[in-house]
Amino acid sequence: DAGVIQSPRHEVTEMGQEVTLRCKPISGHNSLFWYRQTMMRGLELLIYFNNNVPIDDSGMPEDRFSAKMPNASFSTLKIQPSEPRDSAVYFCASSYFPGELFFGEGSRLTVL
Amino acid sequence: ILNVEQSPQSLHVQEGDSTNFTCSFPSSNFYALHWYRWETAKSPEALFVMTLNGDEKKKGRISATLNTKEGYSYLYIKGSQPEDSATYLCAFPGGNDYKLSFGAGTTVTVRA
């Protein structure tokens, strides 16, 4: 298996633009997590899905953030409109509950 | 709100020396405790998933113990090598919904 695949790896955008980050989990995994890495908060859980259903989105910072998992092999994290403080590395991870997480390589977002 | 704490925040170790550090978590409603290793510019990788009180796991020179009654886990590195330099994260899933929240990590720097 290729592992968890995230795209894009790097994204530079201007404030106010919409950003969509994508994640393909490992086939057969039933849980998917979106994390954000910042200097201040370390690895921060944004939202997690179990069997494609959002279980907990209490970590999503505000309404500008949304996440979907339309099927078992794809998830998106959308920021609209983006702001400079959203600049961070966003990680997607998947697991077969309740096992270890497998992380993607991350998407580095820079909002100017 | 789960409170996963790791100490110390950072460690500098001489090559060949052994070291250990701590992860503290709520002792009630325990489900599992994860350890991850995170090298600079890479993604976190799982080391151990521990579920039983008194559990001890080992991978090469790295081992971990678990005390669920008092709410802590130790990670040990025996005979540290420069390639052990990384941030070591522990993660604690909160109850049945498996919301996996990470501690801030212990950053280990091994000096040759």
Give a short overview.
Chain A is mostly beta strands.
List the helices and strands and how they pair.
The complex is a heterodimer of chains A (112) and B (112).
Chain A: E1 5-7, E2 10-13, E3 19-24, E4 31-38, E5 42-50, E6 53-56, E7 65-71, E8 74-79, E9 88-95, E10 102-103, E11 107-111
Parallel strand pairs in A: 2-11
Antiparallel strand pairs in A: 1-3, 3-8, 4-5, 4-9, 5-6, 7-8, 9-10, 9-11
Chain B: E1 5-7, E2 10-14, E3 19-24, E4 33-38, E5 45-50, E6 56-59, E7 62-67, E8 72-77, E9 86-94, E10 99-102, E11 106-111
Parallel strand pairs in B: 2-11
Antiparallel strand pairs in B: 1-3, 3-8, 4-5, 4-9, 6-7, 7-8, 9-10, 9-11
In words, what does this structure look like?
The complex is a heterodimer of chains A (112) and B (112). Chain A has strands at residues 5-7, 10-13, 19-24, 31-38, 42-50, 53-56, 65-71, 74-79, 88-95, 102-103, 107-111. Chain A is an all-beta fold and 112 residues long. In chain A, strands 2, 4, 5, 6, 9, 10 and 11 form a seven-stranded mixed β-sheet that branches. A four-stranded antiparallel β-sheet of chain A has the order 1-3-8-7, with no helix packed on it. In chain A, β4 and β5 (42-50) form a beta hairpin. The mean pLDDT of chain A is 94. Chain B has 112 residues and is mostly beta strands. In chain B, strands 2, 4, 5, 9, 10 and 11 form a six-stranded mixed β-sheet that branches. Chain B has a five-stranded antiparallel β-sheet with strand order 1-3-8-7-6, with no helix packed on it. The radius of gyration of chain B is 13 Å and the shape is globular.
